[in-house]
Structures are given as C-alpha cells and as structure tokens.
TrEMBL record:
SUPFAM superfamilies: Ribonuclease H-like. Residues 121-133 have a biased composition (Basic and acidic residues). The lineage of its organism: Eukaryota, Metazoa, Ecdysozoa, Arthropoda, Hexapoda. This is Protein Exd1 homolog. Residues 110-133 are annotated as: Disordered.
Length: 400
C-alpha cells in the first residue's frame, strides 16, 4: 500500500514560505510532484535551495506511465503539489497499473493540499482562466525550468543605482544599445498623483533599478532614452499611465511605446483591465505568490521608505523582467504568428525541388515562385491608406 505524506503548507492563517517547504525535503525521498501537465514520481536526487529547484531520478509520469531516461529538473514555480510517498507494506508493488490507479485516486482526493505558489484548480477558477476562453485557446504557456533559470540569472545581475556614478553611466550605455527594453515605474497605479520612487529597466541580460528619490530627478542621459521614439523601444503595461506620470512628474515626452495591455486585448479579444502582474500570471501560468513577499519576513512595502529591502527590489526586478518576456511572447507568438507561418512556407519553395535546372530557372529577377504564400491579413491596404492620408493632411497643415 502506498501512503502519501503531503507537506503541511499552512499554519493558521500564515502561509509557509517556499524556501521552508523545500528545506523540509531530504535526498533519497520518493516524491510525487504534480505540475500542470504531469504527475511525476521519482527519487529526490538534488536540491537547489537558492533557486528553489528539485531534481528527480527515475522519474515516471503516473498519468501516462512514461518513464524518463534522464533526471528531471523542476522549478518550484512549476509545482502544484508535493507529496512524500512511502510504502507502508512489504507487498509486491510490481503491478504498475494498480499502483498508478491508486496514486491517481489518492492525489485527486487530496486536491485541497496545494503549494502556496500555485493557483487552485477548482472548476470555477478554470472557467475564468484564459485557457478556458474560446478566443484564447492555447494562449497560456508553461515555462520550463530553464526559463526560470535564465530569469534567475537576470535577477542576480540586478544593478541598483542611487547616484550618477560609473554604474549609472554603464547602465545608460547598455540601455541605449538595446532595440527593446522592459520599463516599469514604481508606483504606477495613480499615474501623476504619486511621485516616482523607482524606474526599472530590463534588458535581455540585465536589470537596472534607478532610485529616483536618491538621484533627485531623471537626468538628461536617461531622459533622452525615454523620449526616443526609435531606439530603444519600450515595453510597458498601461502606457497611458506611464505617459501621464512622466509628463506631469518629470516634464518629459515618453515615446517608442509597445503597450502589452493593448497587445493582450488585441490578441485575446478581451478588453478587461488586468495589471501587469495579473497578465503575466495568466499568460505564463504563474501563481501570484511568485511575486509576493515571503510571509516570514517583515518587509516594509512602502515604496518611499529607504533603504529599500533586497526583497522589495527583487519583486520589482521580477516584474520588469517579465514585462520584457511578455512583450516578446505577445509579439512573436501571437501578433506575428501568421507572418512567421508565411515566411516558413516561402522559405521551402526551392529546397524540395530535386530538379537543379528548374531551380536555376526560378532564380531570375522576375520569378513569382512562392508569391502565392504571401497573403496579407485583412484590410491592411485600407488601413495603410487611411494612415497615409492622415499623415499627409497633417504635413499639409504644418506647411500652411
């Protein structure tokens, strides 16, 4: 008989921290770990306490009875529940089908036992998730352990800037060399009505936190980047609040905006106000606990209190890193999906032709080979024409 020892995750109303849960585990234990896609049973062979990652040897997906030939590394954020498995009898357990059935029955009878960093899976909550909506079918994705490792590398590279020293100028030079950055203001909710505490910038490899309270103002080097309409462009969420804040607090004209709120509304056909944190949770299947503070630490969440705690800075770093990741996902996986499909189809118009002579004939400048694969979306010509007419009228008015 297989017994399950679920980790006790709550003590009264206080939630156990992720690090405390991971620290309870011991190498050699047999674990049953539930993710969004799998139900893995295996022997715990490695614990990364810093990045909250576990490695299972001889891992088997109980749902499909598939056994992995290599160790499986899991990030804490992927896990919905962890159970310690113990064999209470000496009975022969070689019947894998019987064992699998018993495991499934036990797991799904204990649905209330969940890790604090994951969403509940009740029917009501599934009905309100993005993936359950018809227009958004297949919209949400599951990040891999490698994705979380790369994000952790970004967090580890965080540069906190309080004065215009060498760190400041190196950060500005790096940001100016990018084509796209993630941008965050803290706090942002009230737009012009609250002063700036932090400006956070994410590049593909680094995160910079500019402490505006300590710096005193947005200096010209950073100002010129924010006002540039071409390089770098800025991914942000609720661009109207950013523009309002920068205009009324710092007198600068923010430009080069890619608004992930607008992008999310366009690709999902769902015009519902969602914060950056809520959108990230839905798109990447991440629990809100991922962005929350450890309940066992006494952290001041006032953005204007100095010094800022490392935990507070880390939360801002996570948000701005995911801001850039959200831009990349929405643009390339959804907004440009049809474009990439057409590029792929067009790219294959020569390679499968075994007739060398025919291929040579198709290389002349007037060839239309593959043009049938290039199909513009919708009424783009009308849209382009109306935009051109609008711009032309503005130019004529300016001349007059």
């Amino acid at each position: 008989m297989i017994a399950f020892c679920p980790l006790q995750l709550e003590h009264g109303n206080k939630m156990t921290s992720p690090s405390a849960i991971v620290n309870r585990l011991s190498l050699g234990q047999t674990l049953l770990i539930e993710t969004n896609r799998e139900l893995l049973m295996g022997t715990l062979s490695y614990i990364n306490e810093k990045h909250l990652m576990l490695e299972l040897d001889n891992a088997r997906d109980v749902k499909t009875n598939f056994t992995y030939q290599s160790p499986q590394m899991l990030a804490y954020q992927q896990m919905k529940s962890i159970k310690i498995v113990a064999d209470e009898t000496a009975e022969d357990s070689s019947d894998m089908t019987t064992e699998s059935d018993e495991i499934k029955q036990n797991v799904y009878k204990e649905e209330e036992i969940k890790l604090p960093n994951n969403k509940a899976t009740s029917k009501e909550q599934r009905d309100h998730s993005v993936s359950s909506k018809e227009p958004c079918e297949g919209f949400s994705i599951q990040l891999s352990a490698m994705d979380f490792q790369l994000l952790q590398t970004q967090y580890d590279s965080l540069v906190y800037i309080t004065q215009t020293d060498q760190k400041y100028h190196k950060a500005v030079a790096d940001i100016r060399s990018q084509t796209m950055i993630g941008l965050l203001i803290d706090p942002l909710e009230c737009a012009r009505h609250r002063k700036t505490s932090l400006i956070a910038v994410a590049t593909p490899n680094s995160i910079y936190l500019f402490d505006i309270l300590s710096l005193g103002k947005v200096f010209k080097e950073l100002r010129s980047i924010l006002e540039s309409s071409e390089r770098p462009r800025k991914a942000m969420h609720y661009g109207n609040r950013f523009v309002d804040h920068f205009k009324h607090r710092h007198g600068l004209e923010l430009s080069g905006i890619f608004d992930t709120f607008v992008a999310y509304c366009l690709v999902t056909d769902e015009k519902t106000n969602k914060s950056l944190e809520q959108t990230v949770q839905q798109v990447f299947n991440i629990s809100n606990v991922y962005f929350k503070f450890d309940m066992e630490q006494n952290i001041n969440t006032n953005p204007y209190v100095r010094p800022l705690s490392a935990a507070y800075r880390l939360r801002i770093a996570k948000l701005v890193a995911f801001q850039l990741k959200l831009y990349d996902h929405l643009l390339h996986e959804h907004m440009l999906r049809n474009f990439y499909k057409q590029c792929q189809k067009f790219s294959l118009t020569l390679v499968h032709n075994e007739d060398d002579y025919d291929v040579a004939q198709q290389l002349h400048s007037k060839s239309t080979l593959g043009h049938d694969h290039i199909q513009p979306d919708g009424n783009w010509k009308d849209v382009l024409a109306s935009n051109f007419e609008f711009q032309s009228n503005d130019d004529d008015n300016n001349k007059n």
